[in-house]
């Protein structure tokens, strides 16, 4: 037993970033358990995190560079052959079509991979290509666009202070299952349960009586109708003079224009659109405005609809006008060890609408463009047509809009390289699949989630075990490809010049520099007790930086020129007018589809881990008994679900948890490729039903449209 050791790390699967203790025996992780001493997650971890060593050891995992053969099978190759071939092809594409025909695409797991985020962003920046896609546009772009409008910078992310609030409005989020997104609060279920326990209220607005809704007050809503509810609540607040005028006078600009905007939200129409009675809307508005401390939080249910930037704008505005902004128990700001948001602003990464996409003319956001445009960009000839694509940790064929369009478009690329531990629905189209080290096998720092933790803390860990096979760090792979075409994959201005002089900084070096000069940094020895990468890596576990987020910091945290929150947005008024003018009924597709996220899945992966798939887990839809009867379908039937953009066949569960008029569907299924257990589970992709039409996605942000899709259900 002498060679058994324990190492502290954190989970790199979801935004909770839970502290873990790994038991390592002969360079293999044999057990993972929650770290009770982690200041933020305090001994919490879910079943996915503690099973991750089974992903590391998965027999289906890609451990060597794999080359695709003409018949679609893959054969093992070597790094040398991979880089030679990729380099040759990229140089040929560069010569014939220019840098603007090469693109990068990165998916959700990169959020725990700070080095790879920098390298991938840097790769796109060095090429000055417009083809920079990421999962942000199927997830959070609406947050960024609303922040840009209200706070002057895309990265400003106010956090609900659940631990100290008296009233929490949770709309379109299921934190009991998701463990929180864009806010990291350890033991989030218990933190929320504590609100009613101390006399407060939690109101959950969701088309399904979810695991979260069951614990609190549930208000069902029609999918896609959120801006109607939030706009109507604001209207009530103005009408009944429930506004905190003195705070608004200090913190904001444009309250009169906002009041005029809310006049578009007629209460009776809002009741019709949402399915929530006008009296109930009024009651929630009054309760929020009169609670001593209140916060309003919405996530994927409100981020992946057709008007998601407007929705987020209205959502934050509720906290602002009730005087619950930058205050304990309201919305607060994170206090990270590395100010990523400030840095992105400094080097010009953050921003919106500085240029537009080639074919659809959609605005960029943070230098990236919507995934909904990628199939069109591949298929439309002309200068700048996308011909070579490098994807890192993305399964966007399944997770992005228009699964069928994406899959077909990928087949016509001149070069596709996929960095992925599996042959997936996406990577199976690649000419090369390259094996990445997984998070237990690489150096980690929770670059993005540290900024959203309600208990600011610092952690930086060395690899727990060496990478298996020939897997290598994602950033190293991207850097090697960059070397083939003579670029330095760094978003920092001047990096190309230094590169030509032979100077290349590693991502670790760059982020350490930011840490050292950051608010908690050691300032190269000038600040006693300050932190740096070396110190953190030598420390087992995370270090608490503060007990909670600071308040009274608004002027420091926002970027508008007058340091006020801007409530007068012509763009949001235009969106409101568009919403009001929209015809919301569709007789051919009378029901509205919404996504279901499951406890033992993570988006489209982790379906290859036997323990997580125990109990015959399958893709399924859910429908209310009334709608089932109308459609003539029964519990467990295989049914056809059709939308204007596709048709799938899946088993259905008749369940009164789902509110009438809506249909829930698990997202992230319908697998193919080399992950045998996932593929054997069958099912269909939710996103076969979603559109890539640029006119249908959220206009200000380019965020995809997944929730509120008009559908019909029929017996098979
Ligand atoms: N209908 C519908 N669609 C949705 C959603 C929804 O609610 N409804 N949710 C959306 C959301 S919120 C998100 S974030 C997206 C996510 O969509 P994606 O960003 O595509 O993420 P995943 O589907 O989780 O796929 C992640 C891929 O990364 C690979 N991977 C895992 N770890 C690593 C690693 O360390 N390195 C590398 N190179 N690869 C790795 C996995 O094998 C997998 O292929 O899906 C979105 N899609
Ligand atoms: N177990 C698990 N945890 C995860 C993930 C996972 O796949 N599995 N994924 C991670 C990722 S990438 C993210 S972004 C987060 C997401 O975190 P959350 O947003 O908290 O998770 P979701 O389950 O997508 O919650 C969205 C809720 O909105 C509801 N909804 C759908 N459409 C509408 C609508 O139109 N209006 C309203 N009001 N509600 C609607 C759904 O019923 C659902 O309950 O979760 C993260 N954590
Ligand atoms: S909640 Fe998320 S971060 Fe925590 S163990 Fe589960 S998957 Fe990992
Ligand atoms: Mo996400």
Structure description:
This protein is of the alpha/beta class and 716 residues long. It has three domains: 66-129 and 339-446 and 457-544, Rossmann fold (3-Layer(aba) Sandwich), CATH 3.40.50.740; 141-336 and 552-576, 3-Layer(aba) Sandwich (Dimethylsulfoxide Reductase, domain 2), CATH 3.40.228; 585-715, Beta Barrel (Barwin-like endoglucanases), CATH 2.40.40.20. Helix content is 30%, strand content 17%. It contains 25 helices and 28 strands. The longest helix has 19 residues, at 79-97. Bound molecules: ligand MGD (2 copies), iron/sulfur cluster and molybdenum atom. Residues 107-109, 113, 135, 138-139, 300, 304, 392-396, 399, 419-422, 424, 436, 438-439, 474, 595, 602-605, 667-668, 686-687, 706 line the site of one ligand MGD.
Walk me through the topology.
Layout: E1 4-10, E2 19-25, E3 28-34, H1 52-56, E4 66-68, E5 74-76, H2 79-97, E6 102-106, H3 114-127, E7 132-134, H4 141-151, E8 159-160, E9 167-171, H5 175-178, H6 188-197, E10 201-205, E11 217-219, H7 226-239, H8 245-251, E12 252-253, H9 255-262, H10 267-274, H11 278-290, E13 294-298, H12 300-303, H13 308-321, E14 331-332, H14 340-346, E15 352-356, E16 363-365, H15 374-379, E17 388-392, H16 396-399, H17 403-410, E18 415-419, E19 432-434, E20 457-458, H18 474-484, H19 495-500, H20 507-517, H21 533-538, E21 543-544, H22 554-557, E22 565-566, H23 570-581, E23 591-596, E24 621-623, H24 625-631, E25 638-643, E26 646-654, E27 662-666, H25 676-680, E28 709-715
Parallel strand pairs: 6-7, 6-17, 9-10, 9-13, 10-11, 12-22, 17-18, 18-19, 23-27, 24-26
Antiparallel strand pairs: 1-2, 2-3, 4-5, 4-19, 8-14, 15-16, 20-21, 23-28, 24-27, 25-26, 25-28
Bound molecules: ligand MGD (2 copies), iron/sulfur cluster and molybdenum atom.
């Amino acid at each position: 037993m002498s060679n058994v050791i324990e190492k502290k790390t954190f989970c790199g699967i979801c935004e909770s970033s839970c502290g873990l203790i790994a038991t390592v025996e002969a360079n293999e992780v044999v057990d993972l358990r929650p770290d009770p001493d982690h200041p933020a997650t305090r001994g919490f971890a879910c079943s996915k995190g503690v099973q991750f060593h089974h992903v590391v050891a998965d027999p289906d995992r890609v451990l060597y560079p794999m080359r695709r053969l003409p018949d679609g099978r893959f054969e093992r190759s070597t790094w040398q052959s991979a880089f030679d071939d990729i380099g040759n092809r990229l140089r040929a594409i560069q010569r014939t079509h220019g840098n603007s025909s090469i693109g990068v695409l990165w998916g959700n797991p990169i959020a725990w991979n700070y080095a790879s985020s920098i390298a991938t962003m840097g790769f796109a920046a060095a090429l000055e290509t417009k083809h920079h896609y990421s999962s942000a546009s199927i997830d959070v772009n609406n947050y960024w666009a609303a922040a840009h409008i209200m706070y002057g910078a895309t990265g400003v992310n106010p956090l609900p202070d659940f631990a100290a609030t008296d009233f929490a409005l949770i709309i379109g989020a299921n934190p009991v299952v998701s463990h929180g997104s864009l806010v990291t609060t350890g033991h989030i279920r218990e933190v929320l349960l504590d609100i009613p326990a101390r006399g407060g209220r939690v109101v959950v607005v969701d088309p399904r009586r979810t695991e979260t809704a069951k614990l609190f007050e549930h208000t069902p809503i029609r999918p896609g109708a959120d801006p109607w509810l939030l706009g109507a609540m604001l209207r009530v607040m103005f009408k009944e003079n429930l506004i905190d005028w003195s705070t608004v006078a200090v913190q904001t600009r444009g309250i009169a224009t906002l009041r005029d905007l809310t006049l578009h939200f007629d209460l009776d129409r809002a009741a019709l659109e949402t399915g929530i009675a006008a009296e109930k809307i009024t009651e929630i508005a009054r309760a929020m405005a009169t609670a001593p401390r209140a916060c309003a939080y919405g996530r994927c249910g409100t981020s992946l609809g057709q008007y998601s930037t407007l929705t987020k704008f209205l959502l934050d505005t509720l906290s602002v006008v009730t005087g619950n902004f930058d205050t304990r128990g309201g919305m607060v700001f994170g206090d990270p060890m590395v100010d990523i948001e400030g840095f992105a602003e400094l080097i010009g990464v953050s921003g919106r609408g500085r240029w537009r996409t080639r074919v659809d003319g959609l605005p960029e956001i943070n230098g990236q463009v919507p995934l909904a445009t990628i199939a069109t960009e591949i298929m439309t000839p002309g200068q700048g047509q996308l011909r070579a694509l490098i994807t890192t940790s993305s399964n966007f064929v399944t997770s992005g809009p228009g699964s069928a369009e994406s899959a077909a478009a990928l087949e016509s690329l001149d070069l596709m390289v996929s960095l992925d531990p599996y042959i997936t629905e996406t990577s199976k189209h690649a000419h090369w699949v390259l094996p990445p080290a997984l998070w237990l096998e690489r150096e980690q720092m929770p670059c993005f989630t540290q900024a959203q933790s309600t208990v600011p803390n610092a952690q930086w860990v060395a690899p727990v075990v060496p990478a298996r096979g020939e897997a290598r760090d994602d950033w190293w792979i991207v850097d090697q490809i960059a070397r083939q075409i003579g670029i330095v994959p760094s978003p920092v201005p001047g990096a190309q010049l230094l590169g030509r002089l032979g100077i290349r900084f590693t991502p670790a070096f760059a982020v350490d520099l930011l840490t050292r000069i950051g608010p908690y940094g050691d300032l190269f020895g000038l600040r006693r007790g300050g932190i740096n990468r070396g110190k953190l890596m030598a420390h087992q576990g995370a270090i608490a930086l503060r007990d909670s987020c600071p308040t009274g910091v608004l002027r420091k945290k926002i970027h508008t020129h007058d340091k006020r929150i801007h409530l007068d947005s012509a763009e949001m008024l235009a969106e409101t007018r568009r919403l009001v003018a929209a015809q919301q009924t569709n007789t051919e597709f009378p029901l509205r589809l919404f996504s279901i996220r499951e406890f033992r899945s993570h988006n489209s992966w982790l379906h290859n881990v036997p323990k997580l798939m125990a109990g015959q887990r399958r893709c399924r839809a859910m429908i209310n008994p009334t709608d089932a009867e109308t459609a003539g379908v029964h519990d467990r039937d295989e049914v056809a679900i059709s939308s204007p953009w596709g048709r799938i066949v899946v088993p259905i569960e008749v369940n009164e948890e789902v509110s009438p008029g809506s249909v829930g569907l698990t997202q992230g299924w319908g697998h193919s490729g080399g992950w045998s257990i996932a593929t054997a589970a069958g099912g269909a992709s939710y996103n076969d039903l979603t559109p890539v039409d640029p006119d249908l996605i959220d206009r200000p942000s380019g965020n995809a449209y997944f929730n509120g899709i008009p559908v019909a259900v029929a017996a098979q």
